[in-house]
């Protein structure tokens, strides 16, 4: 059969990994695809010494690749938003299939890209956009296709998981662990996307669309970072039987879909509680199969390349199939942008339990006022722990609650912080039970 001719745009970490995997495993890849996958052209601003480009045309202009009439599939690995969007849309306009590892591109511009691809009858594959080498998109879109998905929860950013893991294991502060993660190359010089939950929200947006058949709606995702988590919180969670993780959570409810990224206390016996270091893991609850866990390397050159090349194999197998008979991009047919049949819930409507830590002046009546405020807002206390007074006669108070609506908790926190006897802001971390029983 005729070879599938591939153009790689970007020869950074993932681009180099993809190039090397395609070259090294060419024989096995051909056997799996039923035809050769040939690198026809590479676009890179500079040479990568890890890649032997002998005999392969190289250009500094990524748009040369999408305009090359010999290329069947464009692999977009340049990252970012606007240039990547322009590149992918032009590739689609030229009738080329697209493989991308760009979660930001899909989360923000995916609805537009998929409409254009459907009009041209081409494939857009993006397994590598979520959790690196873990085949969670294929599993969720195809392997779990018989299930009504109830919830998806994941550790989908290795940087945050590394920081929280070592804060707990080594008793160190957030700032110390962030500096170490940057020194080791796990965190960028500007770590905002990682530690504030934006990277995870991109990925969760994609997973939720595939799980529930809703349009991509990144702008409605709630994000909260981990920079305010202290070792005291980590240690207190441990003593209560929990571990703090930075989670992406999406749950189907009768009112709509939850879409949120934030720190959470989860019971130590839960599957996700035992995922440590830079590893990623996504747990999916289906009504038929129950809980399933997808675990592995969420980043890195060859783990991510594994997913990119798997997408290339799927494109090679399916490119001769009529568009109407291919697996839909987001698993469900007929997803329309702006369709609010299953809306994304505002954060005020979320119902969960809470951990709270506050510093109170050590005088009679303070705890009674705290309890009264919580009761007036319908917040039921599960446990209250008063610690030894610190310097300045401030008493740390730890409270855990039963299930409470977020709007009520926000008002309770506002009133607590307004009390003269409460020093500084109240720390609030949500508690997620992640019930693994169907």
Number of helices: 14
Give a count of the beta strands, DSSP E runs of length 2 or more: 17
pLDDT < 50 runs, ≥5 residues = none
| Gyration radius, in Å | 24 Å
The CATH class assignment of the largest domain is: Alpha Beta
Number of discrete domains = 3
CATH topology of the largest domain: Dihydrodipicolinate Reductase, domain 2
CATH architecture of the largest domain: 2-Layer Sandwich
CATH homologous superfamily designation of the largest domain: Dihydrodipicolinate Reductase, domain 2
In terms of DSSP E residues, the strand content is: 15-25%
Envelope shape: elongated
Helix content: 25-40%
What's the story with the biggest beta sheet? Answer: 11 strands, mixed
Structural class: alpha/beta
Mean pLDDT: 94
The N- and C-terminal alpha carbons lie at a distance of: 47 Å
Task: Offer a few descriptive terms.
438 residues, alpha/beta, Rossmann fold, Dihydrodipicolinate Reductase, domain 2, Alpha-Beta Plaits, 3 domains, 6-stranded parallel beta sheet, Homoserine dehydrogenase, methionine biosynthesis
Written overview of the protein:
Residues 355-430 form the ACT domain. GO terms for molecular function: homoserine dehydrogenase activity. By secondary structure, the chain is α/β, with parallel strands linked by helices. It folds into 3 domains: 4-132 and 301-325, NAD(P)-binding Rossmann-like Domain (Rossmann fold, 3-Layer(aba) Sandwich); 136-297, Dihydrodipicolinate Reductase, domain 2 (2-Layer Sandwich); 349-431, ACT domain (Alpha-Beta Plaits). It is 36% helix and 24% strand. It is built from 14 helices and 17 strands. Strands 7, 8, 9, 10, 11, 12, 13, 14, 15, 16 and 17 form an 11-stranded mixed β-sheet that branches. Strands 3-2-1-4-5-6 form a 6-stranded parallel β-sheet, with helices on both faces. Strand 4, helix 4 and strand 5 (97-100) form a beta-alpha-beta unit. Helix 1 (13-24) packs across helix 12 (301-318) and helix 13 packs antiparallel against helix 14 (406-418). The longest helix is centred in the N-terminal third of the chain and has 18 residues, at 103-120.
């Amino acid at each position: 059969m005729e070879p599938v001719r591939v153009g790689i745009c970007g020869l950074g970490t993932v681009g180099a990994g993809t190039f090397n995997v395609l070259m090294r495993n060419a024989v096995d890849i051909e056997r799996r695809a039923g035809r050769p996958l040939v690198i026809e052209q590479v676009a890179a601003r500079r040479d990568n010494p890890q890649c032997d480009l002998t005999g392969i045309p190289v250009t500094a202009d990524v748009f040369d690749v999408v305009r090359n009439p010999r290329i069947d599939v464009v692999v977009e690995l340049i990252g970012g938003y606007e240039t990547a969007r322009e590149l992918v849309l032009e590739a689609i306009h030229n009738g080329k299939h697209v493989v991308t590892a760009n979660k930001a591109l899909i989360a923000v511009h995916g609805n537009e890209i998929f409409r254009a691809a459907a009009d041209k009858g081409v494939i857009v594959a993006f397994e590598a956009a979520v959790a690196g080498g873990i085949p969670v998109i294929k599993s969720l879109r195809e392997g779990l296709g018989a299930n009504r998905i109830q919830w998806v929860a994941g550790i989908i950013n290795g940087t945050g998981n590394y920081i929280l893991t070592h804060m707990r294991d080594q008793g160190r502060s957030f700032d110390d662990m962030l500096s170490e993660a940057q020194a080791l190359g796990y965190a960028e010089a500007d770590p905002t996307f990682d530690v504030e939950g934006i990277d995870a929200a991109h990925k969760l947006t994609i997973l939720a669309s595939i799980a529930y058949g809703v349009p991509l709606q990144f702008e409605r995702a709630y994000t909260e970072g981990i920079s305010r988590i202290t070792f005291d919180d980590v240690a207190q969670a441990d003593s209560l039987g929990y571990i703090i993780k930075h989670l992406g959570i999406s749950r189907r409810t009768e009112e709509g879909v939850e879409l949120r990224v934030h720190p959470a206390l989860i019971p130590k016996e839960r599957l996700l509680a035992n995922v440590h270091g830079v590893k990623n893991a996504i747990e999916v609850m289906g009504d038929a199969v129950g809980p399933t866990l997808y675990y592995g390397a969420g980043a890195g050159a060859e783990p991510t390349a594994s997913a990119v090349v798997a997408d290339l194999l799927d494109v090679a197998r399916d490119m001769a199939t009529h568009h109407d008979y291919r697996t839909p991009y987001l698993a469900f047919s007929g997803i329309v942008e702006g369709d609010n049949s299953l809306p994304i819930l505002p954060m005020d409507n979320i119902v969960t339990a809470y951990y709270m830590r506050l510093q109170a002046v050590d005088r009679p009546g303070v705890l009674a006022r705290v309890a009264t405020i919580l009761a007036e807002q319908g917040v039921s206390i599960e446990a209250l722990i008063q610690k030894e007074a610190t310097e300045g006669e401030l008493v740390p108070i730890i409270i855990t609650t039963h299930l409470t609506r977020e709007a009520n908790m926000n008002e309770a926190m506002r009133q607590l912080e307004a009390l003269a006897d409460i020093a500084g802001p109240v720390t609030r971390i949500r508690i997620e039970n992640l019930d693994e029983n169907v």
